[in-house]
Amino acid sequence: MSGKVSFELHPGRLIGDNQACYVIAEIGQNHQGSMSIAMDLIAGASKAGVDCVKFQKSNLTRKFTQSALSRPYQGFNSFGSTYGEHKKSLELTNEQFVQLKDYANNQGVQFTASPMDIDSVDFLASIKVPFLKIGSGDTNNYPLIKRATNYNQPIVLSTGMTDVDIVQQSVSIIKESGNSLAILQCTSSYPCPPEHVNLNVIKTYQRSFPFAVIGYSGHESADDDSISLAAVALGAKVLERHVTLDQSMKGSDHRCSLNLEQLTSLIKKIRTIEKAFGSNEKVKNSSEIPCYLKLGKSIVTTRTIKKGETINESMLDIKVSEPPGIAAHKFYQLIGRKVNKDLMEDNPIQSVDLD
Question: What is the CB-side half-sphere exposure of residue 215 using CA atoms within 13 A?
């Protein structure tokens, strides 16, 4: 598990040790720039049982150079003739973000976004999102991370497209600030092949960063939920998955996004896994009693034992008996005991039969 650490990600919701996995539905820009699609995704994600919906927030001229915005961008996924036109068509206004935050809260889920530039950090903090999510593209953007730490909010850090040295530096900045931190293992390929997921990094993070909550941000194929479920089984306490209304829609993220039915199924399975974690203490469970009464083994006699005889090992066997007798694990405790009445062959021994 992720160590003995937990913190409040938003009022009333702890994440970390002994807490349910916190599920983030990454809407990103799968809303296609449409408020109605965004609201449908929020409502659907809420119904599926997520804890939070997440978007992406950019000030395009702070995130991109003019040459990057001006380059031609054509193809199936394009929403404009240049990359700038494409990105602008997918951006929501500040006012729309406020509307969506209110809508999400009314739907019973939290709302946040990944700030892609310092201006967006300031904006998201100003509308009081419950935590700031640093996307993989900014794991090495130390000035942006430092700006995010100014607001004394929890920070969730994705770690795709980077190596451990950069992760350690980013984590050090956040740790020094005193902000609560969750770190997500992530591989930024869309969809991500299983051999590049590297779930074992979750265990590495658990050892290396015991002061942080550890989770997983997945981009694997939406047709197989086994990797996300395995992440939860390894102790991921935050799980982020992209969500879409339709995987055939225009946009590179849709192919690795869960539809709402898949999201609902995934969350149900996560909650089942969490029930199955159960207790750290190995005990006989109450649900096992019927099976134990039917198949549990008892100590029985191999021959007639006369009253006053001292029991030796050759007199005893272990079998399923009716009625049950002294439990099998007490076999060696009976050696050397005397019986206080005649016992017939192939019968269970009861405690009242012994002196």
Answer: 28
User: In a 3-state reduction of DSSP, which class is residue 332?
Assistant: helix
Domain ranges of the chain: 6-277, 288-353
Helix extents (H) in 77-193: 83-90, 94-106, 118-126, 142-149, 164-177
For 267-336, strand residue ranges (E) read: 297-301, 316-320
pLDDT digits (tens, 9 = 90+) for 111-152: 999 999 999 999 999 999 999 999 999 999 999 999 999 999
**Topology at the third CATH level for domain 288-353:** Type Iii Antifreeze Protein Isoform Hplc 12 (3.90.1210)
pTM of the model: 0.89
CA neighbours closer than 13 Å in the CB half-sphere of residue 128: 4
Residue whose pair of structure tokens reads 């983030």 in the numeric block = 24
H-only helix segments in the chain: 35-48, 60-63, 66-70, 83-90, 94-106, 118-126, 142-149, 164-177, 200-208, 226-233, 260-277, 289-295
- Cβ-count burial of 53 within 10 angstroms (0-12 exposed, 13-18 middle, 19+ buried)? buried
What is the residue-wise DSSP string for 179-211? --EEEEEE---SSBPGGGT-THHHHHHHHH-TT
Q: What is the pLDDT of residues 44-76, one digit of tens each?
A: 999 999 999 999 998 877 787 888 878 988 877
Torsion over CA: 212, 214, 219, 222 (sign):
negative
Domain 6-277, CATH: 3.20.20.70
Cis preceding-peptide flag for 323 (omega within 30 of 0) = yes
192 CB contacts (<8 Å, ≥6 apart)? 218, 219, 220, 256
